[in-house]
Amino acid sequence: MTFSASVLTLYPDMFPGPLGHSLSGRALEKDLWRLEASQIRDFATDRHRSVDDTPAGGGAGMVLRADILAKAIDATSPAGDPRPRLLMSPRGIPFTQARAHELAEGPGAVIICGRFEGVDQRVIDARGLEEVSIGDYILSGGEIAAITLLDAVVRLIPGVMGNMESAETESFETGLLEHPHYTRPADFEGLSIPQVLTSGNHGKIHEWRMAEAERLTRERRPDLWEAYMTDEDDVD
After folding, report:
1. Would the pTM count as exceeding 0.85?
2. For all residues of the chain together, what is the average pLDDT?
């Protein structure tokens, strides 16, 4: 089964974009995953290819129409398509590493990139769209968010990363932020590599890395630290 991503957007030329380079780009060339970007305006019905209209009840901005977007979704993801339908939205459920793993183990995803003031709620409800957020900030549209989500997912597909062991210690994989890294030269502007890392004592190295990961998480992400400590208490 090859992971297949279908993106619905007003700017299909933004894809593959960064996804066409590095790990994801090489994997795309090897057919380890597939990407299709479709133009929502192709499903418009008037000569101006309009996809939006003024918000019901008044207010600023424009709203992406339910009927146009529904046609685009139905053409891209007909009945029986097992892929989840994701709407990139700042009001969505926060995207996590755990969700990235779930998606990477599945058949793919249909990703809708919002624009304007928002998307008509009726198409969200009628087509079972899962609203997903990549952070507490506002972007001009969902395209960059979709690229971010796909980059996080694709690298987890078997065969994409050369050494999956390196992914197992990355931030969020263990519930902690990742420990600091060092390499040559041994001295950089008077700063040395911590002695324990050059000791050859793998047990001590592991202890140091774990302690540093815990320290960084405690200092920078108290929310993650609280969740991590809760999980540790549950295991005990």
Report:
1. yes
2. 95
Contact 112, 124 (CB under 8 A): no
What is the token pair recorded at 95? 């995207």
**Is 99:133 a contact under the CB 8 Å cutoff?**
no
**Nearest alpha carbon to residue 70 among 14, 128, 133:** 128
Helix 202-220 to helix 222-235 angle (10° resolution) is 120
Q: Is residue 165 scored above 60 in pLDDT? A: no
What's the rounded Cα separation, in Å, for the pair 137 and 216?
A: 24
Alpha-carbon span 144 to 88, nearest angstrom: 9
CA distance 215 to 122: 46
Q: What one-character DSSP code corresponds to residue 126?
A: H
Give the C-alpha separation, 130 to 77, whole Å: 14
How far is CA 158 from each of CA 31, 113, 224, 230, rounded to the nearest angstrom? 12, 26, 27, 31
- Cα 1 versus chain centre, distance: 20
CA-to-CA separations, 150 to 124, 133, 155, in angstroms, rounded:
21, 13, 8
